[in-house]
Amino acid sequence: MSQIIAFDLGASSGRAILGRLNGSRIETEELHRFPNDPVPVGDRLHWDILRLYHEIKQGLLKAKHAGIEPASIGIDSWAVDFGMIGADGELLGNPYHYRDRHTDDMMEKLFKDVPAAEVFARTGIQFLPFNTIFQLYALKQANSQRLQPDAKFLMIPDLLRYFLTGEMYNEFSNATTTQLYNPLSGGWDAELIRKLGLSESWFGQVLQPGAAAGRIRASVMEELGIGAIPVYAVAEHDTGSAVAAVPALDRSFAYLSCGTWSLLGTEVDQPVINEAAQKYNFTNEGGVAGTYRLLKNIMGLWILQESRREWEKAGVTYSFSELVKLAEAAQPFAMLFDPDDPTFLHPGDMPSRIREYAKRTGQTPPEDAGGIVRSIMESLALKYRYVLELTEELSGKAFDGLHMVGGGIHNTLLCQWTANAIGKPVWAGPAEGSALGNLAVQWMASGEFKDIWEARRAIRESFPVAGYEPEQANVWNDAYGRFLAISRL
Ligand code: LFR
């Protein structure tokens, strides 16, 4: 029986998940869970990177205390963020959080150096203000000391892997999200990097998901009293891992990875880089086994998480299930909004922003928590329909239903409303998508699974999938028309 560990770092918490493979049956156990709280310092928003590293080591210790000697480990996290390593091997400054405001006006500025159409043609990546390309450009404008000529660029999992192994590599799925990687030439886009005044030498060797990426270094072995565990590069972008774990049987499938973000799209063999993809702002992120994720980011449950935090600040603590109950009891379709309006990107008072949006668009602002949460969940479900339709148009495929994976599937009302909004069945599961995809790629690397399809079949057979049939077609169709008009889509 093969035992391995996936470290899966999400925007709100990190987990060490033990995976056991018994024949083709996968079992998982949560060894360690820890908060991942961003840290505002002055005007800047940081990740607490050393704490995350500490917690990964705690996970390894917990495994050791449970008598487990993992055959390998892998790390995945959110995309786009990074640290720079100086010539002495030390981290230059604390990595910024992608919701930091330093990239706010950078898109327009950068497009004066390299037009948007050229950036898209070279990278196939959607324009999000926080993409690495805009972060590096902002640092360059600010003459940041981090951008030393002989520095090295490591994304969050690359960096944590480096701390553990002492070896520096860039992993492919995450590298594509920088918007500096060219999937057509199959490497960093040296010309784009030069045109932006950045340095090609910062960017290192790119490892494919499943490649060997070193072993636990001697100092860590000694510190924790563990062996030289092999470390694999997995699909280190969490969305890449989540999509690897979609338990689809058919090669043509649509997915929604539902967590802090909602990522909706399909898997393709070649990136779709054309005018329509740029117009709809779709992305082509690198995946497992040569695939790409043709998808679009949707703001996701972030708006609900931030609303909950706001109410907590005001002294009212709701659990997520309480909030969903309040939403269920609130008036249907009272107020709709585009979750991807830029007003919702940065941390802060979402209920007030939703009310302002309502006023701006001639709607009655929701007053209580139930009304706010209902408007968030209905608006998300309607946005899912919009993005699913665009996915069909761009990929030329028609989907029978939608696979939902990720922690968001615990919100069963959202799953049902998604089925209602798209007018097709939703198949929800597994919730621990990213961790399972991380495990699956390690087992592909070690030869336990022959390919991604064998891994997906094993996931399908090992974890429940809940089906939701569409209901109330007429009301949801009417609401969709209103939603499109309000959102100006
Ligand atoms: C999801 C995710 C998205 C990425 C966003 C920022 O966790 O990785 O795919 O666009 O976070 O990195």
UniProtKB/TrEMBL annotation:
Cross-referenced InterPro entries: ATPase_NBD, FGGY_C, FGGY_N, Rhamnulokinase
Carbohydrate kinase FGGY N-terminal domain residues: 4-242
Keyword terms, alphabetized: ATP-binding, Disulfide bond, Kinase, Nucleotide-binding, Rhamnose metabolism, Transferase
GO process annotations (BP): glycerol metabolic process; rhamnose catabolic process
Gene3D superfamilies for this protein: 3.30.420.40
GO MF: ATP binding; glycerol kinase activity; rhamnulokinase activity
Chain ranges of the Carbohydrate kinase FGGY C-terminal domain: 254-445
Highest taxon, organism lineage: Bacteria
Keyword Transcription regulation included in the entry's annotation: no
Gene Ontology terms: cellular component: cytosol
Stored SUPFAM superfamilies: Actin-like ATPase domain (SSF53067)
Family under the similarity heading: Belongs to the FGGY kinase family.
Name of this chain's protein: Rhamnulokinase
Species: Paenibacillus cremeus
